[in-house]
Design a protein that fits this description.
Low-confidence stretches of chain A: none
Radius of gyration of chain A: 22 Å
Number of helices of chain A: 21
Number of helices of chain B: 6
Shape of chain B: elongated
Largest sheet of chain B: 2 strands, antiparallel
Mean pLDDT of chain A: 89
Order of helices and strands of chain B: HHHHEEHH
Largest sheet of chain A: none
Helix content of chain B: over 70%
Mean pLDDT of chain B: 88
Strand content of chain B: under 5%
Order of helices and strands of chain A: HHHHHHHHHHHHHHHHHHHHH
Helix content of chain A: over 70%
Strand content of chain A: under 5%
Number of strands of chain B: 2
Oligomer: heterodimer
Chain lengths: 428, 166
């Protein structure tokens, strides 16, 4: 009874706008107190952030992403993809999709894509003859496209959280990167196909392939090109560890943007660094306190009890997955992806495991749902970012993103009910 | 020195420390790769140093995020209610945050003292209490920011002066 009242109070405080780290921290402090354990245990759990070598990758990749976003790299990326793909029917829209996916994979889905790339792509799409609504919808829904591709932050964080749970099955981050590849490509293919169909009769948007422009665009992006090749090739090829890839990316981008291209002046560097680390701090502090609350939850056998309750109502895996999709979709509109990961995965993963869902598959389902949640009305975060960035009312964005929402929902359903799509590459 | 001046100094100090920590992390991680690739073996203390830097960067980043109230939150209720009520609701939420931060800072202080009495070498002679020191510091500073925000709210002002528009 007391626990119920406390939980209710904490939920109300979270709804009142208290930061989630404080809500989770309070639940951990109270939980330890009720179990008769010294509150110092919360700090000991927080200190465990120094025990996870993989976490080094989070600030390093974030830094690389923010530096790229502040430089002229987005413009060069759009120019290059346009030179290579612009000749197709719907080419410009496909350019937007490909550029956003690649960029989000590197920056994590934190609204950076809409801010950095949307500002370039939205006017380009409109002047290419695409309708206002289509352009807005495409740019907004592409803001979270690509979180299933390495080295995206949400994928790494899922691996970190899953590894804390001491499951009977290994959840390697390299395996997660492989698992996300085909589902991510499926989403790209579906949206690309829609763009291709939508652009029929739009001759203005196409231009013939120009080998000289392609060569010039390649030269223009010469400094950035080695980056995805080295990082993705290195990780997917199993040549380097993830934290090494992150270090390589951060050091390389820092040297190129500040030292060689000089697109970020030295004076502005501390500001960009601090800006990037704000996001890192916001993620890590939640991860830290949730290490403590997860501990309490497992001690109290909450996942086991939850599974027993659910099993009484749902007895097969497929029904469970349907309910999971509905639940995650709602969750994704309300909760930031990083917070959702650290709060929900410790509860959901053991339950899903009991239904025979592979942890890799669950991770991909979870992130795919969260990806749509970013632009699901009424409160998907990217809707507000796009509304602010493009100076359009949110209602208009609801309408604009609707076809994209249903297309990606279809992709999520395929991903959910066809486990092999996620599990084939990692060989599960 | 005025209070505003003191605040600016504190902001600079936090930003500066954070920048130094990030640059150190990039440099050390890069050095380790070069040593491993070129000289067949890195320095053993770099790995634990990097992990300690994760804690420092994370906590300092969290401190700077609290300056503009940019911690991850749900913020559903406050978007739909009237501004007058919004101030009260947020005030309660932020007041609660202050209390939680104070409690964690206090426990963290005890943790550091314990580590100080029984020091463990983390890397290159740096003891564990020095690494853990960032915890009471960070939660103290975050709590301070939310205390100021709470006071501002109950006086009818905006909680974070340098809040971005979205």
């Amino acid at each position: 009874m007391l626990t119920l009242l406390i939980s209710l109070g904490l939920v109300l405080l979270a709804l009142a706008g208290a930061p989630l780290f404080a809500v989770i921290g309070a639940s951990a402090l109270l939980g330890f107190h009720l179990a008769g354990i010294d509150g110092q245990a919360v700090v000991i759990e927080l200190y465990r952030l120094t025990d996870m070598p993989i976490l080094v990758a989070i600030p390093l990749f974030t830094l690389a992403g923010y530096l790229l976003g502040e430089s002229e790299a987005p413009r060069r990326l759009v120019r290059l993809t346009d030179a290579l793909l612009g000749w197709m029917q719907g080419g410009l829209a496909i350019v937007a999709l490909a550029a956003c996916a690649l960029f989000t994979a590197f920056t994590g889905a934190s609204g950076v894509t809409i801010v950095a790339l949307g500002a370039l792509l939205y006017p380009a799409l409109k002047s290419g003859g695409y309708g206002e609504r289509f352009s807005l919808g495409l740019v907004t829904s592409s803001g979270s496209l690509g979180i299933l591709f390495a080295p995206s932050l949400p994928l790494i964080l899922y691996g970190v959280v899953a590894q804390q749970l001491s499951l009977p099955i290994q959840v390697g981050i390299e395996d997660l990167f492989l698992a996300g590849l085909l589902p991510g490509l499926l989403m790209l293919a579906i949206l690309g196909g829609y763009s291709h169909w939508h652009a029929r009769g739009l001759e203005r948007a196409r231009h013939p392939f120009d080998a000289r422009e392609a060569a010039a665009a390649l030269r223009d992006a010469a400094w950035e090109l080695p980056l995805p090749v080295a990082v993705l090739g290195g990780i997917y090829g199993g040549l380097i560890a993830i934290s090494e890839a992150a270090a390589l990316a951060a050091a390389y981008v820092l040297i190129v943007t500040v030292g060689i291209r000089r697109e970020i002046p030295w004076r502005a560097l501390p500001h960009v660094l601090a800006e990037a680390m704000r996001l890192v701090g916001a993620i890590l502090i939640i991860l830290g306190v949730s290490l403590a609350s997860t501990n309490i939850m497992i001690d109290a056998q909450i996942p086991t009890r939850l599974f027993e309750t659910i099993q009484a109502l749902v007895d097969d895996r497929w029904t469970f997955l349907i309910l999971l999709n509905v639940f995650l979709l709602i969750l994704g509109t309300m909760l930031d992806i990083f917070a959702a990961l650290v709060i929900m995965i410790p509860i959901l993963l053991p339950v899903a495991l009991s239904y025979g869902v592979d942890p890799l598959h669950l991770g991909i389902i979870f992130l795919a749902n969260m990806q749509i949640g970013y632009f699901t009305p009424p409160v998907g975060m990217n809707l507000f970012i796009a509304s602010f960035r493009f100076n359009r009312p949110v209602m208009e964005l609801y309408r604009a993103t609707l076809p994209f929402f249903f297309l990606l929902l279809g992709a999520v359903l395929i991903i959910t009910y066809w486990p092999a799509l996620s599990l084939w590459l990692p060989g599960r | 020195m005025t209070l505003a001046g003191l605040q600016r100094l504190l902001h600079r100090l936090e930003d500066g420390l954070l920048a130094v920590a990030v640059v150190a992390m990039v440099a050390l991680a890069g050095l380790q790769i070069v040593l491993r690739a070129g000289f067949d073996g890195g320095l053993t203390w770099i790995e634990p140093a990097l992990r300690a830097l994760v804690l420092w960067i994370g906590m300092l980043g969290a401190v700077t995020a609290s300056r503009s109230g940019r911690h991850i939150r749900i913020d559903l209720l406050t978007r739909v209610v009237e501004p007058r009520w919004r101030h009260w609701l947020q005030g309660i939420g932020y007041g609660f945050t202050t209390v939680v931060c104070a409690a964690i800072a206090w426990h963290a202080g005890r943790f550091v003292r314990l580590e100080f009495e029984f020091p463990v070498n983390v890397f290159a002679g740096v003891p564990s209490w020095a690494v853990a020191l960032v915890l009471p510091l960070a939660f103290g500073l975050i709590g301070l920011r939310y205390l100021l925000a709470t006071v501002a709210l109950f006086r009818g002002r905006e909680p974070f002066p340098d809040q971005p528009p979205c």
